[in-house]
Amino acid sequence: MQKVIYFAIGAVLIVALIASSYSLAICALLIAGAYQLSRAVRWIDNEGTLFPSIAPAPYDCSDFEVISETEDEIIIRGSVRALSLHKSKRIVSNVKGPLCTFDKVRCVTISESSSSQEGYGTSYAVSLSLGFFSSVCLGFTSNKLEASIAAAKLSTWTGKHVSV
C-alpha cells in the first residue's frame, strides 16, 4: 500500500512539472496536494513530521562541566559552548580562537528565564558580560546550583564579580 501511495505522489509531482509549462498556479496547487498527501501518509503511519525539529527544546538543558583545570588554564563546557580561560595570557577563548581579554569582561552574569511551556520550570544562563550589548554565553541549565558553581569558577578565574 505504501508503494502505491508513493507512486501516486510521484505521479502528481510529474503532472505538476508538466503543468508548470502552462500555469504556475496549477503547478503550485499540485505540489501542495502532493505534499499534503505525503503528510497524510506519515500521519496515518504515526511517523511524525517529515522534517523534525533540529533545535533543542528550551527545557532540554545540560549542566556545566569543568573539562580540565590546571594552575594556568581552565576549560569549562556549557550547553552552548566550551570556554578556555588562560591566566597567564589573560584571555578567554573557544575552539575557534580568542574571544576577549579578561579586561573586557565586566562581570559574570546568571540570568533566569521562565519557560512558557507547562511543567518545564526555570532555566539559568551563565554568560560573560562584555558591555551593554555584548556577552559570551557559556550555556543554560535548569539547576540553579550548577549555574552558581559555573559562575563562581568563571568569576574566580577572571577576577570579576557575579551579577544576578
Topology:
Layout lengths: L1 H18 L4 H21 L20 E5 L3 E5 L4 E5 L4 E3 L4 E4 L5 E8 L7 E8 L5 E7 L2 H15 L3 E2 L1
Parallel strand pairs: 6-9
Antiparallel strand pairs: 1-2, 2-3, 3-4, 4-5, 6-7, 7-8
Helix pairs in contact: 1-2
Structure notes:
This protein has 2 domains: 2-44; 65-163, PH-domain like (Roll), CATH 2.30.29. The strands form 2 sheets. The chain has a 5-stranded antiparallel beta sheet, with helices on one face. It has a 4-stranded mixed beta sheet with strand order 8-7-6-9, covered by helices on one side. The chain is α+β, with helices and mostly antiparallel strands. The chain has helices at residues 2-19, 24-44, 144-158; strands at residues 65-69, 73-77, 82-86, 91-93, 98-101, 107-114, 122-129, 135-141, 162-163. Helices cover 33% and strands 29% of the residues. Helix 1 packs antiparallel against helix 2 (24-44). It is elongated. Strand 6 and strand 7 (122-129) form a beta hairpin. The chain is built from 3 helices and 9 strands, in the order H-H-E-E-E-E-E-E-E-E-H-E. The N and C termini lie far apart (59 Å). Keywords: Membrane, Transmembrane, Transmembrane helix. The chain crosses the membrane at residues 6-32.
Brief account:
The chain crosses the membrane at residues 6-32. The protein is 33% helix and 29% strand. It has three helices and nine strands; from the N terminus they run H-H-E-E-E-E-E-E-E-E-H-E.
